[in-house]
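Contributing new records

If you add data, match the layout below exactly. Sequence lines come first and carry their own label; structure lines follow with theirs. Keep one chain per record. Anything else will be rejected by the validation script.
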Amino acid sequence: MATVNAKIVPHQKKDDGTWNVKITVSHKSQTKYIDTSSFVDKAYLDSKGKLKKAFVDKHFSTKLTEYRDALTALGSKVKFMTCEDVKSFLKNLDAKDDIIDLFSKFDERIQEYRSKGREGQAKNILSVINHLRDFTGQQSFDITHLTTGFLYEFKRYLESPKVIVRNNNNGGYTKPQERRGINANTQIIYFGIISNLVKDLRKRYNNQSIGHTPVPNPFENFDSIKPVKTKRRILEISMILDLLNYKPVGKMETVTRDLFMLSFYLCGMNPVDMFAYLTNPKMTGGFEYARTKIKNRRIIDGGVTNVLIPECAQVLIEKHAGTIQRDYRNIESLHSIFRYGWKRIRAKLGFNVSMYYGRHSFATIARKLCGISKDDVSFALNHKFALDVTDIYAEPNWEIVHHVQKTVIDRVFSELEEKEVA
């Protein structure tokens, strides 16, 4: 049977001559300690160096009785518990009154991701917590209220049109903005973020073996959201040529069009990586970089890829490398330019296009028009499923990426020449 008592550990005397009073947990010939907030000096010790009975009775009898009653209630379960299990069980009794604030846990995760440079994931979590705070009208949220019913109500809220107000960078608030309901695919991302945090919190706080489950599992009976097929973000090669021949008007259009073409030439390089790595206008030959989106998640290769700098890209690098970092405070500022630039360019060209279209179109041209294998296209795009266990040991063959890159660019300029001749 496990036993508990209040004691001091003689050799843990502090510099001020006091000892911390600890609850000792003894079970199966082992002893563990639970710290308390009480400290005593030698006046509270008897001649044997132990806590005086009167002190224990006055200050710890209630807590010891609570612990002993709880251990008795466990019955035969205690036989299958280690001493550490018993200690955790007793500590969890004290924690039952402590509220686990879901919102603060989200805030902690945002800070964690930002400290690791995972700004994209941090922004997604921030969107979720903003919607949750809007929905509940609260700044904190007891996780025990996160029920399956709550999730369905939150889903209905996300689907509905709404007016939102957010904090701005000046310490004030934005103007009220009307927003459409959030589509199913974005909802899948949002609920996935909530589910992942709940899983982590359940691992951290729950102990099924002793019946301590302060974090519920609301997703157990929550029907998964069915994804909706999205419009394909692919441009015909003729549209790529239209963009290539487009004469931008003003700085916004110029930066938007040029960085789109640069992304296309560099195997679909994302703007966040251009902002991070294209800082030297004199870059030549080629360069290796770790993709910001995945570098902290890819154990095998760290998201590293290697691309050539063809002549068509060199011209744009000389024009914009270092300049975009000087002109725009961060990647968010650059994305704001893209929004305005694309709005104007789309209106003039008559088709939908955004930065994402460059990466998707590069892949489609490589696969369908150039006949490059799916594996090689995936490798050029630095997709995870293009890797296998062998890649842990073997040096990557960047010539494959360079071949895909050169083949796609040659195809585009070949069609451009044919168009000009015609």
